[in-house]
């Protein structure tokens, strides 16, 4: 068993050292976002704002899995993966009682579900906009353009949801 684990660690290190390409949404970023989301729940940040970031996290996970599979023979695979990951996450949150409906509703949805839908939608639109700008200009406008667009859009959305919750709902 120890030889097998050593072999797995060795192969993983080789794969890490000789990585074949760079993905737009790397596993390290996805893991960091997941850790940040866990911390936000512990700090008591409102579920709708946590949901916005969770929607972005799930979107990045969907894009990462799409890049990982690399099979382009299925029409709308990226979009299907995106929606499937968000839907399965929300269903599993309901199943295990992580969604608190007594915490308040926005548009008749629990705050966390509302945030996940809004964050996922914004994250997807920003990815489409980023690809459009890269195609139009033939290159990136500045280094880390995709990361900056994604994070800034989620930040602006979080501020918008915060204002919506505290002043209008």
Radius of gyration computed on alpha carbons: 18 Å
Structural class: mainly alpha
Strand-residue proportion: under 5%
| Continuous helix count | 6
Low-confidence stretches: none
The span between the termini is: 57 Å
Q: What coarse outline follows from CA principal-axis ratios?
A: globular
Mean pLDDT: 80
Strand order of the largest sheet: 1-2
Total number of distinct structural domains: 1
The largest pleated sheet is described as: 2 strands, antiparallel
Helix-strand topology string? HHHHEEHH
Protein name: Rod shape-determining protein MreD
Transmembrane segments: 48-68, 80-99, 105-126, 147-168
Keywords: Membrane, Signal, Transmembrane, Transmembrane helix
Signal peptide: 1-24
Short description, anyone?
This protein is mainly α. The chain is 75% helix and 2% strand.
Overview of the structural elements:
The protein is mainly α and 169 residues long. It has one domain (24-168). Helices cover 75% and strands 2% of the residues. It is built from six helices and two strands. It has helices spanning 2-17, 27-43, 47-69, 77-95, 111-137, 145-168; strands spanning 105-106, 109-110. A two-stranded antiparallel sheet has the order 1-2. The longest helix has 27 residues, at 111-137. The radius of gyration is 18 Å and the shape is globular.
């Amino acid at each position: 068993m120890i030889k097998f684990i050593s072999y797995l660690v060795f192969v993983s290190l080789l794969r890490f050292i000789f990585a074949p390409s760079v993905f737009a949404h790397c596993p390290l970023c996805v893991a960091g976002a997941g850790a940040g989301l866990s911390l936000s729940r512990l700090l008591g940040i409102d579920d709708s704002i946590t949901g916005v970031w969770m929607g972005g996290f799930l979107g990045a996970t969907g894009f990462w899995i799409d890049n990982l599979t690399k099979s382009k023979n299925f029409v709308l695979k990226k979009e299907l993966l995106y929606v499937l990951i968000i839907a399965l996450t929300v269903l599993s949150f309901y199943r295990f009682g992580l969604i608190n409906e007594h915490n308040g509703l926005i548009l008749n949805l629990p705050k966390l579900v509302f945030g996940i839908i809004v964050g996922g939608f914004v994250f997807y639109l920003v990815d489409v906009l980023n690809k459009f700008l890269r195609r139009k200009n033939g290159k990136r406008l500045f280094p880390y353009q995709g990361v900056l667009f994604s994070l800034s859009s989620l930040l602006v959305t979080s501020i918008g949801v915060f204002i919506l919750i505290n002043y209008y709902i």
